[in-house]
Every structure is written in C-alpha cells, then in structure tokens.
Amino acid sequence: MNYFKQIFSFAKPYKGYAILNIICNIFYALFSTLAMVSLFPMLNVLFDKTKQINTKPVWEGFSGIKGYLENYLNFFVTQKANEGSEQVLFFMVALVVSMFLLKNFFNYLAMYFITFLRNGVLKDLRNTLYDKYLDLPLSFFSETRKGDSISRISSDVQEIQTSFLSVLELIVREPLTILFTIITMFMISVKLTIFVFIFIPISGFLISLIGKSLKRKSDSVQREQGFFLSIVDETLGGLKVIKGFTSEGVFSNRFKDSTLRYYNFSNTLLNRQNLASPTSEVLGITVISVLLWYGGRMVLNENSLDAGLFIVYIGLAYNILTPAKAISKASYGVKKGNAAAERVLEILNTESPLEDKPNAKVKSDFESEISINNISFKYEDDLVLKQFSLKVPKGKSVALVGQSGSGKSTIANLVTRFYDVNDGSISIDGDDIRDLTKHSLRSLMGLVTQDSILFNDTIKNNILLGKESATDDEVINALKIANAWEFVKDLPLGIETNIGDSGNKLSGGQKQRLSIARAVLKNPPIMILDEATSALDTESERLVQDALENMMKNRTSIIIAHRLSTIQSADMIVVMQKGEIVEQGTHDELLLKNKAYKKLVNMQSFE
C-alpha cells in the first residue's frame, strides 16, 4: 500500500470525480440495505402478519427508533389495507422495486464517475513515465532491456489502473454496504448478530492466508513479460542477421522458454487469485448455515424473533457476502497492483545524474570556443579517456581519428552531455556545460550519427525535428544542401512520402542524407558528426561528403571519422589512442611527421 500513496497523487486533478463517486457509493450502500429491509413489509402483507395500528406512532428519540419504524410501517400498511388488499400489495411491490432500482442507479453513477478518474490516472501516469524515459540518460538504457521498459509503460500501468479501482471499492462502497447492513442487523436482533460475528474474524483470517505470496508471484509475471517483449524487439530489429545466420531455432527456443516461464507464473498467480471468491463464498455459506440453525431456534423454540424479520435477516446476512467477496478480490488486486506500482515507481523515482542545476544558465549563442579541459571518463571500470584536453575555436573544424575504442565517439557523447565527465570539465565560451540547461546546450548543436536514426513517418516530419516551424520551402532547401532532393523529388509523394520503420524503405546513403538535412534545417552553430560516412559505399560516401561540406561551411565542427579521406580538409586533425592524444595538426603536417596518422593513412590506402 505504500506505493499507492504516490500513485494517489495522480488522482488529484480528478478529485471531483472521486467525490461524486463516493457520494454515489454512499447512496448505493444505503439503498442496497433498504432493498433487503423493504422485503419485510411485503412478507407481512403476504402472510397477513401486519399488526393493526390505527393511531399514528409518536417519535420518542433514537433509543426507540426500531419500535417507531416498525409501528409506523404497520400504521401505514393498516391505512392502505383499509383501501383494499390489492392496493396495499401493489404499493409493497412498488416499494421493493423502487429500492432495487435506486440501488442499481447509484451503482451505475458511481462506476460512471470512477471511469473518468481511472482513465485519467492511466493517461497521466503513462505520460509522466514516458517523459521520465525521455529525461533519463543514455547510460540508464544501456543497462535496461527495452522490452522491460515497454512492459512497464503498458501492462504495469494498466495493472495499476485496475488496482486503483479495487482500492476505491475497498475503502468506500463495500465497507459502507457492510456497515449499513450490520447496523440494520443489530436493530433486528442484537443476540443473533453477535453470534454471527463470532465467525467473521475466523473467515477473514482464512481468506487472508491465501494472498500472501501474490505480490511476489505478480512481480515474476511482469518481469518475465518484460523479458519476452525484449526478445520480440530484438528479433524484429535483427531479422536480417537471424535469417542470415539461420538462427531462427535459437531465438524461437529462447522465446518459448520465456513464454513457458510466463505460463507457469501466470497459472500459479491466477489460480491463487481465483481461490479468493469460492473460499469467501464457502465460508459465507457456512456462516449462513450456522445462522439458519441458531436463528431457527429463536423463531421456533424461543419465539423471540418474528419469522418475517428472520427471513429479512438472512437476506441481510447474505447481502454482506457480495461486498465481502469484492473486498477479498480487491485485496488480491491491491497486492498484484502493488508489484506493478513498485516497478513503475522504480522508474519514476530514479534520479537522473544529468539533471539541470536549480540555477542552470540558458545559453542562446556560441561566441568563441569549445574547451575540453583535462577530462577523464569511464563507462564502467576502465578509463576510456585519460586527461584529455582540446580546444575547438569558433568556425573551425576539428577531426578526431584513431582505432576503434580509442574514445572518439565518447568525446561526442560528453560534449552533447549524454554523459558527464568523471574528472575535468568541458566548457563553451567559458561556461561549464554542467552549469547550462541541457535544452539550451543541445539547441546549439546538430548531431549526425553513424546509424541514421529515422522514424516511421514522412520525410517532411523527420526533417522537421530540426525545426518544427519550418515551411515546405525550408525543408526542400535543407534537402538540396544535403544532396537529398535529387531522390526525394522522384518519390511518388515527395516530402510527404512515408519512409517506413527506421527509414527502411530507403538505402543507407539516402537515410544518411536525410539525417544531414535534418541537422541542416536546425542550423546550429556547432555540428558534431559521429562517423557519418563509415557505413556507406563509395558513391554514397561522395554524395554524403559533399553534403557535409556544404553544411559545415562557416560552422564549428567536431568530426569523428573512420575514413580519413573524409577529413583531409579539416582545420585540425587529432589522432587518438587508448583515450589519449598522440599527435595533432593538419593533414599535411601529420603526413610529414610520419607517425601514427601516416600509418593510419597507409593502412586505409590498402583497404
């Protein structure tokens, strides 16, 4: 229940619906009890047991409320009987029907109002969780299965919604129904009610024993669902490799193993949950059976209880069973939902190490230089960068080259503040980037990565990520600068053409040129190119390289390159090995030194 305190905070915008639901539940509980009580005068009329009272009874206070209500009812029936037996029977039937109609009317209204609250909480919880995923750093997702994240935002949140309804029923409608029923039962017979309630704690104890392991089992089900969703995601993303290596059987077996575990966990969980209702009903019928025996003796042997009242009492006692069953089901739902809430709130309560400082500065322009000052960084245990320093003046292009694993791409991740340095600092115009808002920092930068990350949408909408307010003419101009307009103009729908999942309707070179067009449209003062041409064929590389040169004119650029032919015109080339700078200079200067850079050039010339 501790987790639901935080979940309940999402209900605050919908408290009006909650209040209306509670009011309707109060009336439902009241009319649910009165519906049973209304059977008493009906039985008296049928069996001609109505006491003839011709004088209107006088109210003498709450201490005599039972006698007053009984006498007033008999007086009213006597008056009606004087008008004819058929009329009094019709009136009694109308009374019973009216009570049941009102009970169900308020039940509908209660469910009507709670629907808005439930779905509102579901919507807001999903939105908050999605925003949290957007805010968390990349390091979080390198350690988390994507399928598990999808499971939390879909099925776990749905489970919370279901449990949320159960909690509201648990704390309002069903307890009130039981309370009103018990009060009425005490008014009919104190002795009989006390006898009944000797058995209720025993029943409650037995029911509570069933659900102790539900939270643990539910948590296993939800984690396993996240696991097989991850397998599905990886399968769909890597179908080409799976088919190419004829690994269908390996992945199929892995998926089947997961779904078998899910099957076993789910069976155990649901069978225990399904045990709640029959157990509570059997225990309830046992109580009713004892009640029939003990109450029957009061009616037949002791003559201390009216037969009609005893029948109504039996109805009231059974009236407790339905809400008691609902409470037991709801309590299991709460245990199940508690596991889901724990998983959702685990994400919501995760603190991002990259949060903006309270007084973070908004930087709107780039004036002089990017300065990387003695930085060290490690993803896990081993340092990827060691005391690395570099200055990138405004308007200059700096290329980082070196073998895989030398730390080139890490520089791009740190400058864009996808990660924070462990030691040292990175500053722009003298401002430490940790003192700037992430939004304003990244607004100064354009990013083109080795993997062309595009979305299942139109070309236009993919390009507009660079600048949402751009006109069609601006989009087309960006495509021209990126050498992409030549193939886009020939597509059936032009810029309105959908490019499929991850842009898979296009070639690698076409996707990369769209990525460049997106960065061109953003028109940032700083451009970061992370091996933007390494995955391309020679012809595509030439087109993309031309596009990059068009884009980098009069722009500050950090270029991470695998193919050295693409960075020969850079203002400075930095050669890296194992996280350190081994030499730097222009292309011609480095060739003359005849060291690490010359070796890299010679190696590539034979590729």
UniProtKB/TrEMBL annotation:
Q: Which sequence ranges are marked TM in the entry?
A: 20-47, 88-114, 178-207
- Membrane topology per the record? Multi-pass membrane protein
- Compartments where located: Cell membrane
Keywords in alphabetical order, please.
ATP-binding, Hydrolase, Membrane, Nucleotide-binding, Transmembrane, Transmembrane helix, Transport
Under Gene3D superfamilies, the record lists: ABC transporter type 1, transmembrane domain, P-loop containing nucleotide triphosphate hydrolases
CDD domains assigned: ABC_6TM_MsbA_like (cd18552)
E.C. no: 3.6.3.25
SUPFAM superfamilies, A to Z? ABC transporter transmembrane region, P-loop containing nucleoside triphosphate hydrolases
Enzyme's top EC category:
hydrolase
> PROSITE patterns from the entry?
ABC_TM1F, ABC_TRANSPORTER_1, ABC_TRANSPORTER_2
Q: What Pfam families does UniProt report for this protein, alphabetically?
A: ABC_membrane, ABC_tran
* Signal peptide feature range: none
User: What protein name applies here?
Assistant: Lipid A export ATP-binding/permease protein MsbA
